[in-house]
């Protein structure tokens, strides 16, 4: 392409500064037009319908475990008091055997209850991974609409315009697509 001749430079300059007709149609009003967007992942999850449902489920499981722990603790305390009362009527070796068995029971109970707590915590971690995976198409669509090449964690960005943060926009769109996610989780079971 030759750059000489009348009107050539202005026409070339016009091509460089004017977006292609289809490119303008891809962008939507109200969306940030930025090469880099930011998102607050914790807020994205916790304020979404999906995250709120998961939080309610985890709280319910935690409440059940707490009630179970209190019941077990009361039972063990009663058993310990009974064992202590029987001590004066028992031979030292017999008492030691019962005390050791009781201690083993307490340790095993503690291990079981700790395992249940780890499982509840794992539920939360699994749900976050599932949420991010299910949210990716929505986030990718926002990237296409804004012309962004990346979405960064807001916490790792030193300085950005508030308009570059798409957390609220993403929550609304993800809620519209996933809802509370109960049907997504049920279909995977």
UniProtKB/TrEMBL annotation:
For molecular function, the Gene Ontology terms on record are: unfolded protein binding
**What is the top-level taxon of the source organism?**
Bacteria
Q: Name the Gene3D superfamilies for this protein.
A: Skp domain
Note the InterPro entries from the entry.
Chaperone_Skp, Skp_dom_sf
This protein is called: Outer membrane chaperone Skp
Organism field: Leisingera methylohalidivorans DSM 14336
